[in-house]
Hints:
Helix 2 runs parallel beside helix 3. The chain has one domain (34-304): 3-Layer(aba) Sandwich (Rossmann fold), CATH 3.40.50.720. The protein has a seven-stranded parallel beta sheet with strand order 5-4-3-6-7-8-9, with helices on both faces. Strands 1-2 form a two-stranded antiparallel sheet. It is built from ten helices and nine strands. 46% of the residues lie in helices and 14% in strands. Bound molecules: NADP nicotinamide-adenine-dinucleotide phosphate (NAP).
Amino acid sequence: MRSFWRISGEIFERLDHQPQIFFRLTSQRLVPRWAVQFSLTLCSAVITGASSGLGAEFARQLAPRACCLVLAARREEALAVTRDAVLAINPAVRVVSVPCDLATPAGREALITQLEAQDVHPNLLINNAGMGDYGTFESATQDRLSAQIALNISALVQLTHALVPRLKTAPQQPAGILNVSSLAGVLPMPDLAVYAATKAFVTSFSEALAVELAEQNIAVSCVCPGPTPTNFSKTARRESGSDTDRAGQDFLRIPPAKVVSTALEALQSGDPCVYPGLGVSLASSAFRIMPRFLQRAILRRRFANRPTQS
Length: 310
Ligand SMILES: NC(=O)c1ccc[n+]([C@@H]2O[C@H](COP(=O)([O-])OP(=O)(O)OC[C@H]3O[C@@H](n4cnc5c(N)ncnc54)[C@H](OP(=O)(O)O)[C@@H]3O)[C@@H](O)[C@H]2O)c1
């Protein structure tokens, strides 16, 4: 016991009595001291999945402060709706729409090519496009399994890798990367097994990059929303509709506008990972400290009580 206090004392001595060596307080957030802070003023952002939900909301919230927004998703008409909304907020923003399927290498290449062709020099990448698939793993189609991995993981990793060199040389510094993960990333979730695993990947990848890229003056943040009213559930639901009952999640639900504003605040203050909303924040903390056997028991009970077997 004595040696514990001696060693602790020595460590504290070496840190020169400065607990702030680990953290600093920025806009009411405690963030790592090494973390990079991002400024939204006159940013030039690429937003994936900008045709609906959180992506369209990112575009609307960035509109008053951005100088250029590149909007990527598959549906051209829906991208045009986001573009019009952005221009209604700020007619001075340059908006470039790139219809592309980011689940394919060709679609990702098309986005990169368009940045060059349109002479866009982004200093912010928002990896938001993503999809889920509600139901058991066994009954999933190969197409939906592959699409989730291709979009939620491959697109995010490869776009990030392709854009890091451009972010480093962007005229506005520091540059930033904001990845949209999920509360599902903290739990192994039956009926969402692949989706939850892809989001665990996104959170882990983002936190590692936040450390690596701080040296390059690139801020990396990851936002992990709970259930949010967008098109997500509609897209994730299978025709059979046979998955875990998601009733009773209301205390986790917050509006897309709040998810996006919290994510942008985290990026600006240098917070590497944020769980928007009090309910989601408490749930994520509880699940992260809970023993795995207890997690599995809760998940097993919920899974066993789902409405129909698929
Ligand atoms: N809503 C929630 O409950 C929730 C909770 C936690 C995390 N999230 C995450 O939040 C992110 C945004 O989802 P959302 O809630 O805003 O859902 P959403 O309304 O369904 O939006 C998904 C976006 O991704 C785009 N997208 C889908 N497949 C694509 C592809 N192959 N290539 C390019 N773009 C594609 C869609 O556009 P097109 O269809 O036009 O391609 C759409 O713009 C996702 O990463 C999701 O995992 C959502």
